[in-house]
Amino acid sequence: MDNLSAKTTNPVSQAVRRLRLGLGDTQQQFANRLGLAISTVVRYELSRPPSGKALAQLDRVAMEHGLDECALIFRNAFRDELAVPFQVGGVRPPSADSVGFFAYPQTPEEEAMVFDVLSVMRKARDTTPPSNSSLRDDREQAKKELKALLKATKRARGDRIESVEEGQLDEDLTAAIVRLHNLGMPPSEITERLKSSTHIRVWTDDGPLPKVEAVLAEYKKKAQGRKSE
């Protein structure tokens, strides 16, 4: 039987329960869906939130069923656990849409790769004195493997930083357009105020529009959607 009256302040545990209820599942049905024991589901909701691959699995289930708020909580918890925040050099992370890809594993193969890489990295950077020669040799081998990995990913990291920066610039521009619009400034003046960065044309459902008009059209559409809810 579901313990519907139980409370937890952990946001991940709360998200697990919201996801289950959003799917219309009992705890047993939810356990069957995920291939877990019901005791694990109860623990996730009440005392010990999920971690590791379980977070990635819950993220996928939530995304597949349109429960984006829950998915975001699982995704952020997974990133925090990996200690690999999607942020470089103080650059604020833009939304996934503006970057064009998600910075977290999306398939079981990618999940396994992330954990394998982390295993090598943590072993290579372990400062605990090795208790025997075998552990020492393993650590030295891990250091060599990590060096090769860092070399192989250097270019990808540079490309990612560039994508983040471009995404951030676009988000900043969008925020500036909306702010000036809310201050009562007409689109022509907004375009003039923000100079050349707003003269590009953006493809929308209504065809190509100047950047300012495209941003404001999307902004008004979202505002109407919120009012109708």
Overview features:
single chain, 229 residues, mainly alpha, 434 Repressor (Amino-terminal Domain), two-stranded antiparallel ribbon, 2 strands
Secondary structure topology:
Blueprint: H1 11-23, H2 27-34, H3 38-46, H4 53-64, H5 68-82, H6 96-99, H7 108-124, H8 133-182, H9 187-194, E1 201-204, E2 207-210, H10 211-228
Antiparallel strand pairs: 1-2
Helix pairs in contact: 1-3, 1-5, 2-3, 4-5, 7-8, 8-9, 8-10
Structural class: mainly alpha
Strand content: under 5%
Please report the total strand number as a whole number. Answer: 2
CATH topology of the domain at 1-83: 434 Repressor (Amino-terminal Domain)
| Low confidence ranges | 84-102
**Individual helix count:** 10
Largest sheet: 2 strands, antiparallel
How much helix, percentage-wise, in residues?
Answer: 55-70%
Mean pLDDT: 75
CATH class of the domain at 1-83: Mainly Alpha
Q: Element order, helices and strands?
A: HHHHHHHHHEEH
CATH architecture assignment of the domain at 1-83: Orthogonal Bundle
Give the CA-CA distance, first to last residue.
33 Å
User: Strand sequence of the main sheet, in spatial order?
Assistant: 1-2
Outline: flat
Round the Cα radius of gyration to an integer and report it. 23 Å
